Known about the structure:
8 helices, RNA_pol_sigma_r3/r4-like, RNA_pol_sigma70_r2, mainly alpha, transcription, Sigma-70 family RNA polymerase sigma factor, Rna Polymerase Sigma Factor, Chain: A
Amino acid sequence: MAGGEVGGAGLADEAGIRAAYRLHGGEVYRFLLRGLGDPAAAEDVTQETFLKAWRNADRFDPDLGSLRVWLFGIARNAMIDHARARDVRPWHGRDSLREPELVPEPGDVGDPDVADRVLDGWVVEEALRRLADHHREALVETHLRERPYDEVAAELGIPVGTLRSRVFYGLRALRAAMDEMGVSL
């Protein structure tokens, strides 16, 4: 493909989405940063843009426009959705499923280690979305946020043993979800 472009079919696999991110991630981030005026929000929406591109790779038609144009269309729509959601729920902060270190600094986009971390973050986020709410909440609070079991259990109004069971079965479900996605641990 000309100019290092990635084809739509290639976006559905790991190498293709990595290549698309390396080619266009920094530019998409800067576009979103200008539109949103918030680095954290721009990082979130950049990540969402590439996740949507990965999920909808079959919808990309190179005869209608370049990958760059398609990605910017996704980014624009995601930015509008984010701004609307922020206006409706201004008290909400960052998405609790993401860890800040999974999102690259704008200058780091070409770094393979950063791309790997971002892709790993997308995979974990997608797998977490496939879990039951109570399992996801238990895993996010205890593992991602590293909060003590007794504190989380008290906040949720459940016994510590119940929380431990939710974490156990949540991890089992997370492994199964990742297996379904074709990801090995």
